[in-house]
Every structure is written in C-alpha cells, then in structure tokens.
Amino acid sequence: MLPGPFHLLPSSALARRLVDRGTVVARRDDRADAIFFLEAGGIDLVRYTGSGDEIVIHRALPGETLCEAALFSSFYHCDVVATEITQLNSINKAAVLEQMRSDPDFALAVSERFAGQIQDGRRRLEILAIREARARVFAAIAEGFLRSDIKSLASLIGLSHEATYRALSSLAKSGRLIKTGRGQYRLPGQAADSGK
Prior knowledge:
Distance between the termini: 23 Å
Number of strands: 10
Mean pLDDT: 92
C-alpha cells in the first residue's frame, strides 16, 4: 500500500511492479513520466563518468519515494537500477502534478514527505563522514537506520558487514547498545518499542 498522500491518487495513476536484481527501471535521458515508491528490495540511482565509471548517487531504502525531480523535469537524470528482487510502485507524474494543483493539502503533504527524505539523506551523509567504525555504527543506530538487517545497515553506512558486526558486538559489550534479539539493537534507556 502506498503511503500518504499518494494513496489519494486514482488507481489508474499507479502501477505496482516486481523486478529482478539488475533490472533498469528507468534510464538517464528517458522521458520522465513517473516517480517511484520503493516497497521492498533495493534501488540505486546511478550515473556514469565520462570514462564509464559507475557512481551511485543514492541508495534508496524501502519506504522511500525516488526520482522526485522527475516531477519538474522532462527527462530522468540518472539510471534507476534494482539491486535485488524489488517491489516498487510507479506513480504517474501527470496525476501527481494535477493533484498538487487542485489540492493544496496534498501539495503540502508531498512537500513535507520530500523534505523529510532530504533530511534523512543529509543525516546519512553526516554518518558516512564519521571515520571510526564503532562511532559510525553507533550514530546509525541512534538515528534509527537499523530498519531491516545488519547487512543492509552496513551497505547503507559504507562499511563491510563484518566491520559492522564487530562494531555492534563491541558497542553491546561496552554497554553503549543493548542487543534485544538477533540483529536487533537499541540505545540504553530507549523503549524497546520506540522503532529505533
């Protein structure tokens, strides 16, 4: 199911897709006719240098919308590539823009959603700038970035899963984190059901 406010759009504006790992959902310079909502799996937004080197400019997490700039551009600015078996929804660009024009509450809710994702992206960049693995892992847990499994967290914060496991073990041993289950950690003093 789509999150608010996209659930308000007519069903004709939505297309749910299951794609295999490696599927290119959209290519740079393709006509931009949709934005996407990632339900499950993984999507990388990829650009290429003049010499052909691949640069991942964003790694989308389940629950994120992506290619938002397509709402105001004629063409996609990067390749949209599935990194694993992925469930996503295409959301028709024209329908979103029409709903934004006719419903100010919808437009505000879309803007709020996109602003929240920008804030999350900036927090991720701050965490990536932390050099020491233990400190980076601690910051990621404190920000609630452990949303699925440890390997996904490791990928998100730019560490090997081995380094992430070691850091988590060390943080739990020192009492800075509490292990609540397999692959589950929380901060001391944080309620177990707080979602972080």
